[in-house]
Amino acid sequence: MKIHTLGFVALLLIALTLALAASNFISADAFASPATAGMMIQLPTPTAIAQNESEIGSTDGILVMGIVIVLIVTLPLLFRKK
Prior knowledge:
There is one protein chain. The chain is mainly alpha-helical. It has a domain at about 1-25. Helices cover about 55% and strands about 0% of the residues. It contains 3 helices and no strands. The longest helix is centred in the first third of the chain and has 23 residues, at about 1-25. The protein is flat, with a radius of gyration of 22 Å. The two termini are about 20 Å apart.
């Protein structure tokens, strides 16, 4: 019974990950245009001047990603059947 529950939770996590990854590629602008529009018109815009503004704490995303990677590696080792 416990194996089925863990499998179900793993399946839900994989489905959630795939759904979030797929939603990242869907453009909101494509849904806003009328259905009869054949293509979107792209207008050139000037490139913004890069400013060297560094903020303290701007690496929070990297820290969270590192923690997630460590959990992905260590949790299977901890819950492995011997």
